[in-house]
Write a structure and sequence with these properties.
- The structure is a homodimer of 167-residue chains.
- With 167 residues, chain A is an alpha+beta fold.
- Helices cover 31% and strands 31% of the residues of chain A.
- The first copy, chain A, contains four helices and seven strands; from the N terminus they run βααβββαβαββ.
- A seven-stranded mixed beta sheet of chain A has the order 1-2-3-4-5-7-6, sandwiched between helices.
- In chain A, strand 4, helix 3 and strand 5 form a beta-alpha-beta unit.
- In chain A, helix 1 runs antiparallel to helix 2.
- The radius of gyration of chain A is 16 Å and the shape is globular.
- The two termini of chain A are 22 Å apart.
- Chains A and B meet through helix 2 and strand 6 of A and helix 2 and strand 6 of B.
Chain lengths: 167, 167
């Protein structure tokens, strides 16, 4: 996996496409994913949002500067008003690239970067609904444990699970 | 208590002063409180931040439009990507006006407004440290119960308590 950590203007559409195509996110959730990219494009790391984009290592080299569309990405950053806590805001793997361990690698990279920045804990939140069992299993496989569960947080019958991992 | 629900440019400094003078918040936390007022001034309710400012009902009426400095304020809003959840972001009562039940009245107003906007639950977060026992007791008196506790969230030895109230 090759990584690109600086968002490019083209990533706005790439993130919108990838997040939409997973079928997991509502349009208003996709909008939030896109907004975080736009925030970084406008303010850099002052936005508080950090990224790693996985790009195709097999792509032939060229002398022309070309946009490398990502196969997946992770967005994370220090939790405001905390010392040592980080949030994993988004992790998306393109439908065509799922099942190859790319998600776990992106997760690992985000944790590594957080550690470098003084992170001691990474938090990630997801829905407790049955539809999200694969997501829940993914976090458990990545070493996360349930720190809290808030009943009916997202909607009636849709709990929030807060996962936590010590870095 | 009289309420003003539209932030004015003068509130930026008033909020900075009140939050600082309580002695409860670090400078970076005060900055966040101020930013939420600025966000509303820039974007209105599109910011997602709603306010009630308590103003002095005893103040003599005048024909001149004058700025009424608040005695306290509450900032709240719908939790993004949820249906029916609200966050109470800030509640501050000016040092000189504390102990008169103003905080509970502001709390009640925020809950009432959230209910009007379809809110079913209000969440508020605070530190688990001993210093925050008065804050914790305040939320408990206002009908909030502990939904979760995240160890070392704010810093080593500084847990986050998430309080919740059904509206």
């Amino acid at each position: 996996m090759h990584l690109r950590s600086t968002p490019l203007p083209e990533d706005v559409q790439a993130v919108r496409r990838m997040a939409t195509e997973t079928g997991f996110f509502r349009p208003d959730e996709v909008d939030v994913a896109v907004e975080l990219v736009e925030e970084h494009l406008a303010k850099g790391t002052d936005s508080g949002y950090y990224f790693h984009f996985a790009v195709d290592p097999e792509r032939p080299e060229t002398h022309e500067p070309v946009y490398d569309p990502p196969l997946g990405y992770v967005c994370f950053g220090p939790t405001p008003c905390t010392i040592g806590s980080f949030d994993l805001y988004w992790i998306v793997v393109d439908k065509a690239s799922q099942g190859n361990g790319l998600g776990l690698q992106l997760m690992h990279q985000a944790e590594q970067s957080a550690r470098t920045m003084g992170g001691r804990r990474m938090y990630v939140e997801t829905s407790g609904k049955e539809l999200y069992r694969p997501t829940q299993r993914f976090y458990e496989k990545a070493g996360y444990s349930v720190a809290a569960r808030l009943p009916d947080f997202y909607d009636l019958g849709d709990d929030k699970i807060i996962y936590q991992k010590n870095l």
